[in-house]
Write a structure and sequence with these properties.
alpha/beta, binds beta-D-galactopyranose, single chain, D-Maltodextrin-Binding Protein, domain 2, globular, 2 domains, 448 residues
Length: 448
């Protein structure tokens, strides 16, 4: 099959460390190529209902999926797409690294969207990231027809439907549901040291202390760019506040001045004591490898790590909810929509539809580590034990929105939040960080 990868963005490590000059070159280069694509593949006559096989041209897909698990999952969707649309050339414009989740890709995307040169479709988190950054800005097409033709209003959970819709229309199709509040642990290290996975922060720090005495890092952390400390901290907030008060942080119902935020920062400060000391020079994307190699015992991260470990053929791992968050499912969803002016519009529609099908979701998610967004998917024998449990937990747990992964807050607030937590990783100043978080909420227009 013909799948191109733009520039050297297939190299995760390289892309994660890409310098600014190269980054800009890629932004301009991809824009130029998109303009070429527009002359090749643009089809002015929309044919949205019937999902005809696209007849030729290109399909340029933006994402930040460049890591083990992510690549295989994306390729599984591309394989299906090529079977259904054999004449279409897929341009895989994947780009790793940057601030927060997908920061480099989002910056290139924004340049292209502002220039009126969007890709055909792009990875975007459901919720505020989709609605505030793209829909309210008037740069997406409503896709109610796609929802109607696939019956999607009947198969997605209400919480997802609420977050893919705005102003009475649907704007994007979720391909998965990820969970952010998981503690992944190396089972060999735990077994060799007679440890059981922690249920509380007291358990966690007792284990961390035992391992420290043996020279083993408890918390694998990569904070060379803002992101992972913020990810750890959103799960600490969930544990300390509980589901309702955590949700209230993003609506103004819970004040960021609350003393429980201070408690959460103090827990985060202790976690930093047990992290790899070089975390300020390690990239988030490189951290899972520490658990694989056994140089760290645990990592708090989303269940894309499940996909990563499987992609690396690593099996000495298991998971528990982050201490204090049992019964809470911190959720996010990757989705694809239809930007206005997509150069290969029919091809893009066929892609978005594929993302919404059961077949597409059951090909993608077993490899990605996540669970399908469709409630009628998930029967495939390819789902692993983690995923089977996650599908159950999603039905019975209280769902809360991840902030770092775009669900809970608009992007400017997410950036302020991850920057505040990056500063905290450097200075470990609880009071100053709480003030910065209070200010971030105020700047986002959510009082405290
Ligand atoms: C998340 C995204 C996941 C995964 C992860 C790490 O924001 O939703 O699909 O890609 O970043 O790259």
């Amino acid at each position: 099959m013909s799948v191109q990868t733009r520039g050297s963005s297939s190299s995760y490590l390289f892309a994660a460390r890409m310098d600014r000059r190269r980054f800009l070159r890629m932004a301009l280069g991809t824009a130029g190529l998109a303009a070429v694509g527009a002359t090749v593949g643009f089809s002015p006559a929309p044919s949205r209902g019937a999902a005809p096989a696209a007849e030729g041209g290109k399909l340029e897909i933006f994402s930040w999926w460049t890591a083990p698990g992510e690549v295989e999952a994306l390729n599984a969707l591309y394989d299906l797409y090529k079977q259904q649309n054999p004449g279409v050339e897929i341009i895989n414009a994947a780009l790793a690294g940057g601030t927060g989740a997908g920061g480099n890709m989002k910056a290139v995307l924004q340049t292209r969207m502002l220039a009126g040169q969007p890709p055909d479709s792009f990875q975007v988190h459901l919720g505020h990231e989709l609605i505030d950054s793209h829909v309210k800005a008037g740069r997406m097409e409503p896709i109610d027809d796609i929802y109607a033709s696939l019956g999607l209003n009947d198969v997605f959970p209400k919480g997802l439907l609420d977050n893919s819709s705005y102003d009475g229309h649907q704007w994007s199709v979720p391909v998965n549901i990820h969970r952010s509040n998981i503690l992944w642990y190396n089972t060999k290290i735990f077994n060799d040291n007679g440890l059981t996975p922690p249920a509380t922060w007291d358990d966690y720090f007792a284990i961390a202390e035992k391992l420290k005495a043996k020279g083993i890092v408890m918390a694998a952390l990569g904070e060379s760019s803002p992101g992972e400390t913020g990810h750890y901290f959103e799960t600490v907030l969930q544990s300390v506040l509980g589901a309702d008060a955590y949700k209230g942080l993003w609506t103004g119902a819970t004040a960021w001045t609350d003393s429980r935020i201070t408690d959460a920062l103090n827990i985060m400060k202790r976690i930093l004591d047990y992290a790899n000391p070089d975390y300020l020079s390690v990239a988030w994307g490189d951290v899972a490898e520490m658990v694989v190699k056994g140089t760290a015992a645990t990592q708090i991260d989303g269940d894309w790590r499940n996909g990563y470990y499987k992609g690396k053929q690593f099996s000495d791992y298991s998971w528990v909810p982050v201490p204090g968050t049992k019964g809470i499912y911190s959720a996010l969803a990757d989705s694809f929509g239809l930007p206005k002016g997509a150069p290969d519009r029919d091809n893009a529609i066929a892609w978005v539809k594929l993302c919404g099908t059961r077949e597409g979701q059951d090909a993608f998610n077993p490899l990605k580590g996540s669970i399908p967004a469709r409630t009628d998917a998930g029967q495939s024998p390819n789902y692993d034990d983690y995923q089977k449990q996650a599908m159950q937990d999603f039905k019975t747990n209280t769902i809360v929105p991840s902030v770092v992964h775009g669900f809970a807050a608009k992007e400017s607030w997410v950036t302020d939040y991850v920057n505040a937590m990056n500063a905290f990783a450097t200075n470990r100043d609880v009071a100053a960080t709480q003030n910065a978080l209070v200010q971030a909420a105020a700047d986002a227009g959510v009082g405290s």
